[in-house]
Amino acid sequence: MNIFRRLLPTKVGFKKSKNSCNARGFCSIHSSPDCVVQVHSSEQEVIIALGSNVGNRLQNFDEALHLMKKSGIQITRHACLYETAPAYVTDQPRFLNSAVRGVTKLGPHELLGVLKKIEKDMGRTTGIRYGPRPIDLDILFYGKFKIHSEILDVPHERIWERPFVVAPLIDLLGSDIDSDTVACWHSFSKHSGDLFELWEKLGGESLVGRNGMKRVLPVGNNLWDWSSKTSVMGILNLTPDSFSDGGKYLSVEAAVSQVRLMLSEGADIIDFGAQSTRPNASKISVEEELDRLIPVIEAVNKMPEVEGKLLSVDTFYSDVASDAVKNGVHLVNDVSGGRLDSNMHSVVAALRVPFITMHMRGDPSSMQNPENLQYNDVCKDVAFELYERLKEAELAGIPAWRLIIDPGIGFSKNTEHNLDILTGLTTIRSEIARRSLALSRAPLLIGPSRKRFLGEVCARPAADERDPATVAAVTTGVLNGANIVRVHNVRYNAYALRLCDALLERKRYA
């Protein structure tokens, strides 16, 4: 039994309370200072908004999520992360805003008390209304209930006028309405339509990137607005057996020279791979992978040219990911999406770095087996399987705002599948959006560079002869929604991306 209890001094009774359920299936609760309202229930699904503009804003979010979990709130979904201009009181620092969806056995006033204690423990004090604060936690929805008391209104009274609240709220839904509770939330909108129509009336996606609101991904010490330009990830294979350039960068000196070249040609990210994931590749040990990897990362971090750039590690071992991040790497890129190491998600969650989740069936030694190449509709099937991996990561504690999507071109795909994915990226996003809008809005990475399907289409059996086809594949992917491209030849692809970004900019403001 859950007890909906006011936190002010009370005496038990129902004489001044009114509970009413309407035809839409939600319940209204009105309480007064001398009553306790009891409702028989198990756990309730809730949405809680987060805001911060004092101190280390992202660290404040991480700490608040940790304390919420300790206090009996099981977080199941995270919205995207937004940096927004302050509202109402404008002479203060910019805010980070987001929201989480979860379940709890706490009653609504009990939940309110927990959130207020977290705010206090994190240093929030009484100040000007809408003024600066290290953390702000608000209950947006509580089950199917509308609640009105002297200290709590659910839905929160000013949701409907605040884009910085509605944007993350929408992220926590899917375009499909998958439960009676979600249907109730839509019905709470004060506008004639549902929450999606409310968001559109406020301005919808046109607000993001303008009017003081940016959707960002925290990486390193920065908030990355990946929509401002397409990013180039340069590939550095520290392996003797990679399909394109295996053996070329085994020495630290050769590796550093190649990094310097890629940075000079426009790379935004360097992706270090010390284990081959080509078809039929055999696994090497954690120790061997680290022996190849760490000396190069240490040397690259001493380069002045790397200032302001991002470093990524391409590995499916959690121990390698952990050591690489401790040595200065900013992102973890896992071709298995966490499926080849059961500790990967929990390790990355603790490291608090972005996680690139790629689609692959099996492992590199088995991914091209006939059973792994069977799809009904490759874009829809990849989207569903990617969503499952993303949800596993999110439930393990990696927020949606730290996830990056990779549909895995060349991994468990034949030539036709790869072509369909390049032209079907919008389908992959929309299929993920049916279940989670936040996950569908994550940055999308593609890696077609020099892969076999390009050789088959263009009759170029040698990998290093496939750069022109790579440029065409990258261009197709970016014009269909890719945000990051992973390539061997940075120079040619960087030029192509400039043109793609110019075309997209013209289209956006046409």
From TrEMBL:
SUPFAM superfamilies with a match to the protein in the record: 6-hydroxymethyl-7,8-dihydropterin pyrophosphokinase, HPPK (SSF55083), Dihydropteroate synthetase-like (SSF51717)
Pathway the protein acts in: Cofactor biosynthesis; tetrahydrofolate biosynthesis; 2-amino-4-hydroxy-6-hydroxymethyl-7,8-dihydropteridine diphosphate from 7,8-dihydroneopterin triphosphate: step 4/4; Cofactor biosynthesis; tetrahydrofolate biosynthesis; 7,8-dihydrofolate from 2-amino-4-hydroxy-6-hydroxymethyl-7,8-dihydropteridine diphosphate and 4-aminobenzoate: step 1/2
Segments forming a coiled coil: none
Example of a GO cellular component annotation carried by this entry: cytoplasm
Reaction it catalyzes: (7,8-dihydropterin-6-yl)methyl diphosphate + 4-aminobenzoate = 7,8-dihydropteroate + diphosphate; 6-hydroxymethyl-7,8-dihydropterin + ATP = (7,8-dihydropterin-6-yl)methyl diphosphate + AMP + H(+)
Example of a GO biological process term: folic acid biosynthetic process
Keyword Ribonucleoprotein among record annotations: no
Keywords: ATP-binding, Folate biosynthesis, Kinase, Magnesium, Metal-binding, Multifunctional enzyme, Nucleotide-binding, Transferase
Residue span, Pterin-binding domain: 230-498
CC cofactor: Mg(2+)
Transmembrane segments: none
Listed InterPro entries: DHP_synth-like, DHP_synth_dom, Dihydropteroate_synth-like_sf, Hppk, Hppk_sf, Pterin-binding_dom
Signal peptide bounds: none
Protein name: Folate synthesis bifunctional protein, mitochondrial
Lineage of producing organism: Eukaryota, Viridiplantae, Streptophyta, Embryophyta, Tracheophyta
